């Protein structure tokens, strides 16, 4: 009745939210380096009419916290030791593509970038933490977007193959779990960041996100599906012992019909398919699903596809399914459905007891994670890996230098209890990685005020702060949960 003995306990971060050192040791800008939160509708790009392309144009009135972030690049040893202090046997982070190939299209990699990840991964292994490495976590090199339009261009597949082959060969035998594209199923709502795609020569150059065309988004979708298959194939050729999984945001799998109106039941189902399964089906089954082809047909669009690449997709599917879950949502045909980094936002669910504290006020639905686990396992029959689940709170040190974050621990405990219920249901769950175990720059809003960590970092939205680390009360509770392999919750 316990959690599995080999259960992976730990936490997750991303390079663009924690490393900083955004132009250090040969790194060039990536797409999130020019944004203050991926929810921004005004990224730091300016259309050059003469050159007919976008160029980086940072706003001097904005604070780009990610440029320094929490300085994990220089403090990773201290931070990993704090993670090991909780008993982590697993830690997830990403490799910044632009540290290895700064512009993305170079022939040879940047040795200084590789050397940093040598040190980082070796430190994880020294502390007996299994590295879980995301290959692309909202970090497409900016040059690939401004010069090629990103993943709309087939040439990115070859650039990607060169990148992943390089890191597979470098870290062979050290990394057992690789994730391809983080939350790539967000690309229809946020094509620039989640999909790494941009329409060049747009009709409305002041809106680089909104100007991305239907055709470019769906052509990029196909290229990403092919790149995912190449990743599986190349990994198995280089390191047969390693495994490749997808990583999708699956909060929206828990999209409930607001009532039993058949239109709402179908609307919720179709929303889930077009928010999650359109990538999940391609990655896990190796086929473009029929409901996607219907969308193409209704828009009189036919992407450029290659029969050999379609066969490659069929033969190289992922070996496990990793995902993020933060909250559930509802579908009501009379209400608009919006989305952000936490998932979809529909009509308020009257059956949920509460929301996270203001200013974000995300609905809290621990039972939703059991629902998501069962739906995904029933559909894909693959091992499932929870690689993001957490709660962002506005908190500061008290007069004694402490933070009593009981709300966070209730969130974690409640969700883990329903993870255990899913395991009893027969779902194969590989592990649970909390997002993020140390305060990092928020992906959605680009701020430090939204704190997720068990470890507090002294940095604030205006950029000031000592960067000192302080352990919160939740640190010790999560340590107890891990030490008991979850039994303390049962």
Write a structural description.
The chain has 490 residues and is α/β, with parallel strands linked by helices. It has 14 helices and 16 strands. Helix 2 runs parallel beside helix 4, helix 6 packs parallel to helix 8 and helix 8 packs across helix 11. The protein is globular and about 60 Å long. The model has no long low-confidence stretch (mean pLDDT 96). Keywords: Glycosidase, Hydrolase. Its EC number is 3.2.1.-. InterPro entries: GH (IPR017853), GH_1_N_CS (IPR033132), Glyco_hydro_1 (IPR001360), Glyco_hydro_1_AS (IPR018120). Belongs to the glycosyl hydrolase 1 family.
**How many β strands by DSSP?**
16
Mean pLDDT: 96
Determine the number of helices (DSSP H or I, runs of at least 4 residues): 14
Helix percent band: 25-40%
Question: Roughly how many Å apart are the termini?
Answer: 9 Å
Summarize the structure.
The chain has 490 residues and is α/β, with parallel strands linked by helices. Helices cover 36% and strands 15% of the residues.
Features:
single chain; alpha/beta; eight-stranded parallel β-barrel; two-stranded antiparallel ribbon; 14 helices; 16 strands; hydrolase; EC 3.2.1.-; Glyco_hydro_1_AS; glycosidase; Glyco_hydro_1
Helices and strands in order:
Blueprint: E1 8-12, H1 15-18, E2 45-48, E3 53-56, H2 72-85, E4 90-94, H3 97-100, H4 111-126, E5 130-136, H5 142-148, H6 155-170, E6 177-182, H7 191-194, H8 214-238, E7 243-249, E8 255-257, H9 262-285, H10 290-298, H11 307-315, E9 320-324, E10 329-331, E11 338-340, E12 343-345, H12 367-380, E13 384-388, H13 406-424, E14 429-435, E15 455-457, E16 469-471, H14 473-483
Parallel strand pairs: 1-4, 1-14, 4-5, 5-6, 6-7, 7-9, 8-10, 9-13, 13-14
Antiparallel strand pairs: 2-3, 11-12, 15-16
Helix pairs in contact: 2-4, 6-8, 8-11, 12-13, 13-14
């Amino acid at each position: 009745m316990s959690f599995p003995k080999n259960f992976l306990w730990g936490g997750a971060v991303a390079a663009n939210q924690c490393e900083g050192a955004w132009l250090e040791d040969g790194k060039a800008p990536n797409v999130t380096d020019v944004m203050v939160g991926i929810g921004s509708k005004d990224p730091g790009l300016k259309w050059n009419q003469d050159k007919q392309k976008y160029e980086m144009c940072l706003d001097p009135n904005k604070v780009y916290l990610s440029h320094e972030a929490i300085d994990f690049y220089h403090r990773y040893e201290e931070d990993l030791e704090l993670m090991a202090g909780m008993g982590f046997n697993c830690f997830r982070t990403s490799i910044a593509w632009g540290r290895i190939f700064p512009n993305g299209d170079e022939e040879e990699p940047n040795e200084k970038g590789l050397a940093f990840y040598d040190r980082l991964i070796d430190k994880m292994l020294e502390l007996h933490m299994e590295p879980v490495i995301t290959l692309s976590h909202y970090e497409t090199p900016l040059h690939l977007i401004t010069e090629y339009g990103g993943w709309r261009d087939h040439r990115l597949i070859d650039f990607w193959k060169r990148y992943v082959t390089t890191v597979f060969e470098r870290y062979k035998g050290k990394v057992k779990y690789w994730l391809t594209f983080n939350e790539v199923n967000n690309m229809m709502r946020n094509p620039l960041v989640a999909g790494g795609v941009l329409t060049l020569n747009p009709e409305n150059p002041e809106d680089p996100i909104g100007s991305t065309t239907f055709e470019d988004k769906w052509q990029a979708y196909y290229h990403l599906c092919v790149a995912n298959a190449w990743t599986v194939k190349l990994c198995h050729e280089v390191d047969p012992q390693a495994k490749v999984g997808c990583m999708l945001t699956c909060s929206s799998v828990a999209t409930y019909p607001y009532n039993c109106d058949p239109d709402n039941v179908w609307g919720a189902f179709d929303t889930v398919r077009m928010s999650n399964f359109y990538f999940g089906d391609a990655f896990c089954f190796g086929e473009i699903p029929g409901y996607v082809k219907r969308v193409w047909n209704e828009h009189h669009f036919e992407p450029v596809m290659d029969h050999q690449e379609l066969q490659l997709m069929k033969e190289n599917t992922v070996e496990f399914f990793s995902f993020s879950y933060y909250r559930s949502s509802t579908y009501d045909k009379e209400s608009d459905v919006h989305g952000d980094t936490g998932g979809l936002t529909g009509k308020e669910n009257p059956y949920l007891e509460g929301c996270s504290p203001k200013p974000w006020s995300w609905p809290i639905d621990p039972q939703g994670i059991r629902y998501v686990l069962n739906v995904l396992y029933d559909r894909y029959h693959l091992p499932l890996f929870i690689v993001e689940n957490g709660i962002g709170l506005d908190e500061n040190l008290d007069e004694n230098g402490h933070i009593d974050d009981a709300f966070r621990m209730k969130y974690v405990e409640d969700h883990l209890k329903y993870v255990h219920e899913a395991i009893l249901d027969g779902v194969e769950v590989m592990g649970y990685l909390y997002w993020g175990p140390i305060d990092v720059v928020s992906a959605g809003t680009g701020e430090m005020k939204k704190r997720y960590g068990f470890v507090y970092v002294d940095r604030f939205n205006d950029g000031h702060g000592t960067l000192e680390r302080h352990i919160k009360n939740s640190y010790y509770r999560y340590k107890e949960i891990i030490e008991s392999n979850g039994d303390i919750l049962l």
